[in-house]
Amino acid sequence: MTASIISGTEIARQIREELKQEIIELKAKHNLVPGLATVLVGEDPASQSYVGAKEKTSIELGIYSERIDRPEKTTQEELMALVDRLNKDPKIHGILVQLPLPKHLDETEVLYAINPKKDVDGFHPVNVGKLMIGEPDYLPCTPHGIQQLLIRSGVQIEGAEVVVVGRSNIVGKPIANILLQKRPGANATVTVCHTGTRDISFHTKRADILIVAAGRPKAVTADMVKEGVVVIDVGVNRVGKTAEGKAILVGDVDFEGVKEKASAITPVPGGVGPMTITMLMLNTVRAAKLAAGLA
Ligand code: L34
Fold first, then answer.
1. What is the per-residue burial (b if ≥16 Cβ within 10 Å, else e) of 67-99?
2. Residue 218 designated active-site
3. I need a surface site. Which of 59, 210, 226, 239 has the fewest CB within 10 A?
4. What is the pLDDT of residues 7-59, one digit of tens each?
5. Cα 143 to chain center, whole Å?
6. What's the domain range around 253?
7. Could you tell me if 163 and 52 lie in one domain?
8. Beta strand pairing status for 209-212 and 230-233?
9. What are the tens digits of pLDDT across the range 166-201?
10. Based on the domain organization, do 156 and 234 belong to the same domain?
11. Is the CB of 51 under 6 A from ligand 1?
């Protein structure tokens, strides 16, 4: 079998089209303009690229966007004061602090300080807890994007054997949580593998849907999957540069090998990445509606 390609670029485009219409209506009917603040501390090139895409997309959709860049040497106090100001700003419905922060900063303290109602990343413990009990206000962007990729490509999730490789707070744990909820587009049997798993292949070979967020190229190879599996590759690894100086990106899955056995697979780039950005826009619209009592 040669896999069909699940295009995140295309599905993200569809969702952005839907959001654009919704934003026009919110403005026309309620004079409501969703507002997003994106905060980047330091100069990590990958983070700059992602935050740049977030800002650009919000402007394209008609979201009010405030981009805040702070130098590497920013102190914890300065960052906390910034979050406090954004918490109080009525034009701002969503606050995104791009991770990872420089090492001298306390990430947890910053994430805890964001008003949960403006936490469009879904990283605040209140929102993590709400997801866990099946009452989410915001689903975290990458896992929500993964769920939408599966739903919109017609993949049967209910009853499926889903195997997740990776247990991070931003991908592995929340995607496992989302897909095990008792609701449409979920209700799967979920297994989570990680660095402490004795035999990863034993689990990955059983997967109908395999979600890989291991953070390492070729973490999953063809011998580790069964014929017909649907593969979602969350990895974005920079493995070098082209002659023109552009970063070469690969996922966590050995795409060339695995695509010969899978029924469907996401590419890198153009898979989960564009969905992460789009779901942030969706959460920002939702935050504006929640603040206005419209959701
Ligand atoms: N607070 N920090 C916070 N929220 C997030 O949701 C993120 N994440 C992760 C890192 N830190 C975060 C992102 O935004 C990962 N991530 C992210 C976002 C976008 C893309 C990849 C990761 C993306 O657009 N990837 C493109 C390639 C972009 C490129 O050329 O560099 C793709 O097609 O995969």
1. bbeeeeebeeeebeebbeebeeeeebbbbbbbe
2. no
3. 239
4. 999 999 999 999 999 999 999 999 999 999 999 999 999 999 999 999 999 99
5. 5
6. 141-273
7. no
8. parallel
9. 999 999 999 999 999 999 999 999 999 999 999 999
10. yes
11. no
